[in-house]
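Try this one yourself first.
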């Protein structure tokens, strides 16, 4: 398959994730859309690495995966703590951090 097709797929996945973050009001869905955007970045990095013939994109993709894994841990902990106190994962109801 042509590597440019992977870049088009990555752009499409990133756009779907961005629309999901902007439109949806549920924190879990927004969180999953952010993960979709990170995976689209990984796909673009690996496809770009394949086009140039180097390993730079694959190494950068590995670091993006490390950041995504740490984001999962922290993000889900915050969502669970908000759900315990508010019994809702709506972004509109999550005003716990206000003074």
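Now uncover the answer:
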């Amino acid at each position: 398959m042509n590597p440019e097709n992977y870049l088009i797929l990555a752009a499409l996945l990133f756009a779907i994730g961005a629309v999901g973050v902007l439109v949806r009001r549920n924190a879990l869905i927004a969180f999953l859309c952010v993960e979709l955007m990170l995976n689209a970045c990984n796909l673009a990095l690996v496809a770009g690495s394949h086009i140039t013939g180097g390993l730079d994109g694959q190494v950068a993709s590995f670091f993006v995966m490390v950041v995504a894994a740490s984001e999962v841990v922290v993000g889900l902990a915050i969502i669970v703590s908000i759900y315990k106190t508010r019994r809702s994962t709506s972004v509109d109801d999550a005003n716990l951090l206000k003074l």
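Discussion: The helical segments are 3-23, 27-52, 56-86. The mean pLDDT is 87.
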